[in-house]
Amino acid sequence: MTFGQSDFLLFLLALPVAAAVLYWSLKKRDTDILRIGSPDLIARLHASVNRRGRTAKFGLWFIAFALVIVALSRPQWGSEVEIVEQEGSQVMIALDISNSMLAEDIKPDRLTRAKLEISDLMSKLGGDEVGLVLFSGAAFIQFPLTFDYVTAKSFLEDAHPGMISRQGTAIGDAIETAIKGFDETRASQKVIVILTDGEDHEGNPVNAAKAAVDESVLVYTVGLGTGQDQPIPEPGTFNGNTRFMRDRQGQTVLSR
């Protein structure tokens, strides 16, 4: 048996001293009483006093005090308690904010659905750091790795296509930017989660993904969209007044 707070056991040393002081005090009291009266008178006056009961009461108090001290010392049986520190993962989320993410083939639209998925993921992480990369034709870190999920969700909610002027879907750049966001001094698992409609028009995402795997980074992709041609609403044209994007020839721009 071991004790989690063995320092409390030192108080047990005070019990014999307290018992000796109490015994001396009672004996002195009896001696003083005998000095002021005859033995017969003292015996008659103490006839109703239960000396054994009084002794038992003091004994129970000492036992109770000893048990309290033992309890405070936290006695432990069985195997030894070992504290193991477990380091969480580093999760970089790459969110596509290109105009095609405004398509409404999944409700309410691809971008909003992606935000909901990311928010749900954050709620399930628990102990893992999360960072966010926004990308379209270019990529940048919206917020670095953090445990502050509340603030992270606030930054996530503000993401929109107008934050990057260069349009496109540079998944490769997003992966490279996410890798730069990891803390290389730590040996924790590194994960990249990409949410996109998959219309890559820039770079080489396959090579970027292979480079990430070579650095022991796990890469997951979440595709958004039905795969059917969908018109892309112009940013800010909602609530029944939707206008769709057109190319230079005046044709409606379609996204899959």
Mean pLDDT: 79
For the record, the count of structural domains works out to: 2
- Structural class, by secondary structure, is alpha/beta
The arrangement of helices and strands along the chain is: EHHHEEHEEHHEHEEE
What's the CATH H-level superfamily name of the largest domain?
Answer: von Willebrand factor, type A domain
Instruction: Give the oligomeric state of the chains in this entry, treating copies of one chain as homo and distinct chains as hetero.
Output: single chain
| Helix proportion range | 25-40%
Low-confidence stretches: none
CATH topology of the largest domain: Rossmann fold
Strand order of the largest sheet: 5-4-3-6-7
Write the layout of secondary structure elements.
Elements: E1 2-3, H1 14-36, H2 39-45, H3 51-72, E2 75-76, E3 90-96, H4 110-125, E4 129-135, E5 139-146, H5 149-157, H6 171-180, E6 190-196, H7 205-214, E7 217-223, E8 230-231, E9 254-255
Parallel strand pairs: 3-4, 3-6, 6-7
Antiparallel strand pairs: 1-2, 4-5, 8-9
Helix pairs in contact: 4-5, 6-7
What does this structure look like?
- Helices cover about 40% and strands about 15% of the residues.
- With about 260 residues, the protein is α/β, with parallel strands linked by helices.
- The protein has 2 domains: about 1-75, no CATH class; about 90-255, 3-Layer(aba) Sandwich (Rossmann fold).
- The strands form 3 sheets. A 5-stranded mixed sheet has the order 5-4-3-6-7, with helices on both faces. A two-stranded antiparallel sheet has the order 1-2.
- β3, α4 (about 110-125) and β4 (about 130-135) form a beta-alpha-beta unit.
- α4 (about 110-125) runs antiparallel to α5.
- The longest helix has 23 residues, at about 15-35.
- The two termini are about 70 Å apart.
- The model has no long low-confidence stretch (mean pLDDT about 80).
